[in-house]
Amino acid sequence: MASESAADGYILAQRMLGMAYVGKKWQGLYPYDIDKGVCWLSKAGNAGDRESAGQLSDMYAKGKQVKKDEEKSFWWLKKAVFNRFEDDNMVGFRALAESYEKGIGTEVDLIEAYKYYDLYGTAGIKGKQRVSKKMTQEQIDEALRQSKKWQKEHNVQVGDGSIRRSN
Length: 167
Known about the structure:
The chain is an all-alpha fold. It has helices spanning 2-7, 11-21, 34-46, 50-62, 70-81, 90-102, 110-119, 125-132, 137-153. It contains 9 helices and no strands. The termini are far apart.
């Protein structure tokens, strides 16, 4: 039943089947098969399923069941954060900020790091303080401009972006 639903494009069935094949759901009902699991999770993640994309990001980040690949992990992290079915993107903003700050799976980009720490709200204050020490005021201002633009486009308001350099 799940196999048929997944083959017909039902995202939840694709996720559950993927999780079953990687040993996270329905143990004993489906044989462990990492290739099939990654395939079904990828189909669901590419179709907009946050949990599937997040699972793949975590697997690639930790090198669990698949070869560690920070670039693939980062790619799936962005898929998980910016999917088309959910409006609550706050979940992955910290992880994106850290990836941009440390260059994990992507190039170091302090403006992007600061932007995502700002979008993470008050929980991102320490990250913003840390990153701002390596930035010019112009870079901080650009990050805040991008953050405010994202907030306006998504009709949300988080953070206040009030770190100013005292040069």
